[in-house]
């Protein structure tokens, strides 16, 4: 009797299928316990702000009055927003394309370099620099002053090496001292002179740094007599250090102005030209009889070449894209290099055995086999480019900020940078999210496809 009762009271045996279900249930609970903090942070930092921004985009600037789709309508009527959309389109087309192409070329070339690892490290190092620091670096590099901006310093050096510079950009004539200034910036003597005479041309405003070290006093040259068949003269600095001297006269302590181009003009035409010596003297020989005026061409006084306005309205966007390329080229090269290392070498060797050259192998074999990797790199860069903010905000000066603005910077400027219209700023944020989502979905599908 007791044995029968104990038998009836014992639980039924647990099957193997039930045990598996219980184990899976416990595994799900444990996994959920580990994932829950991440999901909580994701909801607090991503999902909630997105939903809040979507809701906020339907209210006015104060956030109290529901305006429906007015912010979205206003967004596409605002010229600044349309310019931001245009600049964003330029970024999306240009930057990822250039980066993918550069990364591909560098990845292929690095394979043939002996110190490939060091080269990759060197190109990848800008990734360790924050966008803020990179923006400051390139803001200084693009400075229009050649004494500050390294790019303009290089441009000016090359320009001056081939074209040369004016000798005295700040020089000018005193009023009433016998010189008239032409419309082109040249100076011409008001009185004429004939062969056998001497002409003294005095200038002021020459900076000490512009006066050549080999310049000598002009007084001995002014005292020389001209031959009967020559027109002689001197171009000098009509200024005596420490004061004294007489205006319009060559004093003993006044310096000549060497390397000054001088022309003899008759009836409006240049009949002879020369360059002044170290003491500022010049002479025209074998001139015919008649009256001549002396002219100092405008090239003597042309302002120095200041280089390129990298951060002007026309070039500010390409300049910022250049800074972006400097940062991200290493990223593209490393990813494409990893894909290149996984290529089947037998296909490349077979092509070489068949007589294909390196260009044909690159174009017909390497690029097609790398197409999935190139696509992932390109789409990843497109997503990143759509969100670019730091470089544009830091590099572009205030006066051209609107010419360089993209959607991310425009969203910030409208919301917090003076516009104080968070309704319109939220609408811009939603637009940016809608533009990014297709690229993100495409990339996720590519990753899943590669895993399968």
Automatic annotation (TrEMBL):
It is a multi-pass membrane protein. GO terms for cellular component: plasma membrane. GO terms for biological process: carbohydrate metabolic process; transmembrane transport. The keyword Transport applies. InterPro entries: Ig-like_fold (IPR013783), MetI-like (IPR000515), MetI-like_sf (IPR035906), UgpAE/MalFG_permease (IPR050809). Keywords: Cell membrane, Membrane, Transmembrane, Transmembrane helix, Transport. It is found in: Cell membrane. Residues 85-443 form the ABC transmembrane type-1 domain. It comes from the Bacteria. The chain crosses the membrane at residues 29-51, 89-109, 121-142, 323-344, 365-383, 423-444. Its main location: membrane. Belongs to the binding-protein-dependent transport system permease family. PANTHER family: BLL4140 PROTEIN (PTHR43227), DIACETYLCHITOBIOSE UPTAKE SYSTEM PERMEASE PROTEIN DASB (PTHR43227:SF8). This is ABC transporter permease subunit. It comes from Streptomyces sp. R35.
């Amino acid at each position: 009797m007791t044995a029968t009762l104990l038998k009836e009271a014992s639980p039924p045996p647990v099957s193997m299928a039930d045990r598996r279900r219980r184990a899976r249930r416990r595994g799900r609970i444990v996994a959920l316990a580990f994932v829950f903090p991440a999901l909580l942070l994701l909801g607090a930092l991503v999902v909630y702000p997105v939903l809040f921004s979507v809701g906020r985009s339907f209210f006015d600037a104060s956030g109290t009055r529901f305006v429906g789709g007015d912010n979205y309508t206003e967004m596409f009527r605002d010229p600044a927003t349309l310019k931001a959309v245009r600049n964003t389109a330029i970024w999306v087309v240009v930057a990822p394309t250039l980066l993918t192409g550069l990364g591909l070329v560098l990845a292929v070339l690095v394979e043939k370099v002996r110190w490939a690892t060091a080269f990759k490290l060197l190109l990848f190092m800008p990734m360790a620099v924050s966008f803020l620091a990179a923006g400051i670096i390139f803001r200084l590099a693009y400075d229009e002053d050649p004494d500050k901006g390294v790019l303009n310093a290089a441009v000016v050096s090359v320009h001056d090496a081939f074209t040369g510079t004016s000798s005295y950009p700040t020089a000018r004539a005193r009023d009433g001292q016998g010189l008239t200034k032409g419309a082109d910036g040249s100076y011409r003597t008001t009185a004429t002179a004939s062969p056998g005479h001497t002409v003294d041309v005095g200038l002021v405003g020459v900076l000490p740094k512009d006066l050549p070290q080999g310049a000598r006093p002009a007084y001995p040259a002014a005292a020389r007599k001209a031959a009967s068949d020559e027109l002689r003269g001197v171009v000098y600095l009509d200024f005596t250090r420490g004061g004294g001297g007489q205006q319009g006269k060559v004093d003993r302590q006044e310096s000549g102005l060497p390397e000054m181009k001088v022309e003899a003009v008759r009836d409006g035409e240049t009949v002879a030209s020369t360059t002044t010596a170290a003491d500022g003297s010049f002479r025209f020989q074998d001139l015919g009889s008649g009256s001549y005026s002396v002219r100092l061409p405008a090239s003597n006084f042309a302002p120095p070449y200041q280089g390129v306005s990298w951060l002007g309205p026309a070039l500010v966007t390409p300049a910022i894209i250049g800074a972006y390329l400097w940062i991200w080229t290493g990223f593209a090269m490393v990813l494409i290099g990893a894909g290149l290392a996984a290529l089947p070498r037998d296909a490349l060797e077979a092509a070489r055995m068949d007589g294909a050259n390196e260009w044909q192998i690159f174009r017909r074999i390497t690029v097609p086999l790398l197409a999935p990797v190139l696509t992932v790199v390109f789409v990843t860069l497109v997503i990143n480019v759509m969100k670019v903010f730091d470089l544009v905000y830091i590099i572009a000066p205030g006066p051209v900020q609107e010419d360089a603005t993209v959607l991310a910077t425009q969203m910030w400027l409208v919301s917090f940078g003076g516009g104080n219209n968070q309704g319109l700023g939220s609408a811009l944020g939603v637009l940016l999210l809608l533009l990014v989502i297709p690229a993100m979905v495409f990339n996720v599908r590519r990753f899943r496809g590669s895993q399968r």
